[in-house]
Amino acid sequence: MGIYAPGKEAGRLSFFSLYTLQHRGQEAAGIATCDNGVAHIHKGQGLVATVFNEDNVSTLKGDLAIGHTRYSTTGGTGIRNAQPVIMETIDGPLGLAHNGNLVNAHLLRRQLLERGVGLQTSSDTEVMVHLLSAASGDWLNRIKSLMTQAEGAFALTILTRDAVYGVRDPWGFRPLVVGRLDDGYILASETCAFSAIGAEFVCEVEPGQIARIDANGLHIEQGAVPKQRAFCTFEQIYFSRPDSIYGGNLIHSTRQRLGRELARENPVDADIVVSVPDSGTPHAIGFAQEAGIPYTEGLTKNRYVGRTFIEPTQQLRESRVEMKFNPLKDNLAGKRVVLVDDSIVRGTTSGPLVQMVRNAGAAEVHVRVACPAITDPCYMGVDMASSDELIAGHKSVEEIRQHIGADSLAFLSIDAMMRGLEAEDGYCNACFTGVYPFESERFVQLELRPKEQFANVWGD
């Protein structure tokens, strides 16, 4: 997120906005501000509420700020890679926060190293900061130069001494929205960040656009020619908070439509519909509405355990499944259960959850998944960069059913998913199809390496 809030404490407002974006990353958090050309920053590993307190927030002076919650893709999980990344330039402080992943990051990194630039982190975010610093012209032209060099997914907020910029890649992989706050403005990954500080939605930053917020107000212009739109489907299915809005539609409503399509395409005789909370709940509600089967809670969630999909290691994901859910036995005993989840990625949680429902006395457990089978890696900012990690990448639907122990298993088809999204195109479905939206031969030739190999640089 980024904010310009004249006469207000931008750092404090950033804390509350970041708090609502916690679901997008749990590994680290940071805020950088600028006060009359002087930068202040605080960041650390952990949740927003853990990293920040009254003492350190009070040091974040100024009416310009950017903030970030980290969910690592490129680069390790250590503190060196926490964002925002900030440096001093001849034109004053420069800070950058990045949501996404550059597919040509290692090529850009090598070019910088060959030029004698010293790098302190293993993330692609620092690479972009150096490219901005080395470019010529004003900040707007430097950002345009960066957009010609960076390939992949990037939604950015950039801090300078007198403005905050928001930048969205030409494909529009990741979301970026603008809100109005009294005499100022806020940029954020999702509209849910607005309500916490009383901001009102203004517009989405469109693919290839640059938004500048400063004392002169809001200015948006095209920084790069937009490509074929490729918004990440997983944002709609899982990543975004259900109370956020994209394309004029509430995410919760979109997920209900996906659930209804799932029920039409994959009906089942059952007594109750149960969700895998919380991300599977809207899908399950839609399924139940369309199928005419009662929806009820079958699993209760420990609200103090984070999202297991975005934990940084497989071991942590596995250890948290049983800590995260408990069955409601009276609701499940003797019932034929439809267990609806938003997705199956690695298959880590599905098997234990099916067994948990069975142990609670369910007569049958039928698993329905509100998106297609995820068969291929994502290189654009979702941490599933190895085919070996994806259960559908090497197992058939029947083999997955046997692996998780369900009585039946069905995924939503791509056609039905697009109907639920009320779109014919404009989305990236590469994780379901293996068809990536890049035309560049360089993308095909890339040696795309998982983040663990980058982590060895600093022992993160």
Task: Describe the protein in words.
The protein is of the alpha+beta class and 460 residues long. It folds into two domains: 2-230, Glutamine Phosphoribosylpyrophosphate, subunit 1, domain 1 (4-Layer Sandwich), CATH 3.60.20.10; 235-433, Rossmann fold (3-Layer(aba) Sandwich), CATH 3.40.50. It is built from 18 helices and 23 strands. Strands 3-2-4-1-10-9-11 form a seven-stranded antiparallel beta sheet. The chain has a six-stranded antiparallel beta sheet with strand order 5-6-7-8-12-13. A four-stranded parallel beta sheet has the order 17-20-21-22, sandwiched between helices. α9 (251-265) packs across α10 (281-291). The two termini are 25 Å apart. The relative contact order is 0.12.
Count every helix, treating DSSP H or I runs of 4 or more residues as helices: 18
CATH class of the largest domain: Alpha Beta
| Biggest beta sheet summary | 7 strands, antiparallel
Number of separate domains: 2
Q: Any guess at the CATH architecture of the largest domain?
A: 4-Layer Sandwich
Descriptive keywords:
single chain; 460 residues; Rossmann fold; 2 domains; 18 helices; globular; disordered C terminus
